[in-house]
Amino acid sequence: MEPHNHSSLAEFVLLGFPKVGHIKGWLFVLLLLAYLFTICGNTLIFLVIRLDAALHTPMYHFISILSFLELGYTGTTIPKMLANLLSEKKTISFAGCLLQTYFFHSLGASECYLLTAMAYDRYLAICRPLHYATIMTPALCGKMAAACWTCGFLCPISEVILVSQLPFCGYNEIQHIFCDFPPLLSLACKDTATNVLVDFAINSFIILITFLFIMVSYGRIIGAVLKIKTAAGRKKAFSTCASHLTVVLIFFGCIIFMYVRLRKSYSLTLDRTLAVVYSVLTPLVNPIIYSLRNKELIKAIRRTIFQKGGRASPTHH
């Protein structure tokens, strides 16, 4: 095979789920059902929160943005996974691969910042309830959301530029279920120590700093909840945070192991498994976690689906 550099390399081959054999059809059905449920669940939560005036609060504002973000996050990778399961030609163009990597990481970084904003919102609501309404104003909510999106989409730019300048030799099979920095770096035919170090520095800053901020916020929240004298009061206060904390632990647990490391890969099988968890399962369970543990949201969904007019109608300002 003739060697190629990055300027002449037209496409990569995404190996996806190797050795699935006769269960490929079942895997396609499961992945498709998961994707459809993710779309329907997150779209429902987003629309219900936007249409129901009773849910126009900072907490639900951030939940609706998270649901909208998950739609883009899954749309970046899952459709290509589904197409590759049906196609014998599992290719993606060089530019397409870089774009997929960029949007996957930019949306992932945005989610890190958004989960941090949600933790700050819960901290203010529980630890500083008397000042909550004056601090967490609609204007501040809008600015925080805009900052999450802006910072998220700026973060991966330097990494993508560095990868785009690498020379890629003849072997172009990506040992992963979608395009990502670690498997791309393993295909480069030059030393990628600089890329690995830059990736580690950026990922460590984004992931560890936001995770630390979230954990500090919840440490203070737990301390405040434990001071509540009645058991019913403690249960009510912490129930509003339990769903958010569950999402945080699942999401950050996977991405810390996957991206905060100085090695390109520990295990291809482990990398694929973790990728399925944070790219497919986390967006899938978000609607379940937020709806099952939230009586207000369940009531709003029932109002929106089963009632006409009233609060289910769009509000006009």
UniProtKB/TrEMBL annotation:
Keyword terms: Cell membrane, Disulfide bond, G-protein coupled receptor, Glycoprotein, Membrane, Olfaction, Receptor, Sensory transduction, Transducer, Transmembrane, Transmembrane helix
Domain G-protein coupled receptors family 1 profile: 41-290
Localization (cell): Cell membrane
Nucleotidyltransferase keyword on record: no
GO CC terms, sorted: plasma membrane
Membrane topology qualifier: Multi-pass membrane protein
Transmembrane regions: 25-48, 60-78, 200-226, 238-260, 272-292
PROSITE patterns: G_PROTEIN_RECEP_F1_1, G_PROTEIN_RECEP_F1_2
Keyword GTP-binding: no
Molecular function GO labels: G protein-coupled receptor activity; olfactory receptor activity
Family as reported in the entry's similarity comment: Belongs to the G-protein coupled receptor 1 family.
Reported function: Putative odorant or sperm cell receptor.
Protein name, UniProt field: Olfactory receptor
Source organism (scientific name): Enhydra lutris kenyoni
Gene: LOC111139059
